[in-house]
Amino acid sequence: MTAPSRTVVLATHNPHKIEEFGAIVAASRPDVAVIGYDGPEPVEDGVTFRENALIKARAAAAHTGLPALADDSGICVDALGGAPGAFSAYWAGQRKDAVANRDLLLDQLRDIPDPRRRAQFVSTIALVIPVPDADAVEHIVEGIWPGRLAHAAAGEGGFGYDPVFIPDGQPEGAERTVAQWTAEEKNAVSHRARAFAALVPLLATL
């Protein structure tokens, strides 16, 4: 097993994201150790995934002096014009209540039939690399995971909107929400995995 020789800070206090990101990174870059961010949280006042990802990565890089990754992700529902989008974590209010967010979203679509329940998980990852006596180097990548919303939550795994998201590409009649998948299944094809696949070549610059 390759021992990590580089360290990158992940700009989040969410242990679920740290675990998931660490597993994704380790699968292709075992030489890169991902650590959690213990500094102050910046104000995420952007209105897009890109803006918020950069806000978080810049703050973590400035606080730690280390290369910083930040993921801003959420669910975009076609019938809602792409909402909740960047406001996914706060859809039911400022408490970041995952259950309340899911319940509100399902209630808003309760009369919408399957063909019109199209949705996508979107992950935008910012990589900010501090450079002594110069501007930091910044990169942005994105991953999109298409699917649709279930009519009710199902499954005990995952987090956030996983219990109500049914990814495309599953056998008809045997479709499952992401919360019914194993962590390994999810990490292989998720929106974060897709974004990270685009990020891997950029990590070579560390």
Automatic annotation (TrEMBL):
Protein species of origin: Microbacterium resistens
Cofactor, free-text remark: Binds 1 Mg(2+) ion per subunit.
Positions of Mg(2+) binding: 72
Keyword Metal-binding attributed: yes
Assembly behavior: Homodimer.
Reported cofactor(s): Mg(2+)
Listed HAMAP family: Non_canon_purine_NTPase
EC code: 3.6.1.66
Swiss-Prot/TrEMBL catalytic activity: XTP + H2O = XMP + diphosphate + H(+); dITP + H2O = dIMP + diphosphate + H(+); ITP + H2O = IMP + diphosphate + H(+)
Recorded name of the encoding gene: rdgB
Residue sites binding substrate per the record: 12-17, 73, 159-162, 186, 191-192
Full protein name: dITP/XTP pyrophosphatase
Family affiliation: Belongs to the HAM1 NTPase family.
NCBIfam families with a match to the protein in the record: RdgB/HAM1 family non-canonical purine NTP pyrophosphatase
Task of the protein: Pyrophosphatase that catalyzes the hydrolysis of nucleoside triphosphates to their monophosphate derivatives, with a high preference for the non-canonical purine nucleotides XTP (xanthosine triphosphate), dITP (deoxyinosine triphosphate) and ITP. Seems to function as a house-cleaning enzyme that removes non-canonical purine nucleotides from the nucleotide pool, thus preventing their incorporation into DNA/RNA and avoiding chromosomal lesions.
Pfam families, A to Z: Ham1p_like
UniProt entry keywords in alphabetical sequence: Hydrolase, Magnesium, Metal-binding, Nucleotide metabolism, Nucleotide-binding
Active site residues according to the UniProt entry: 72
Domain of life: Bacteria
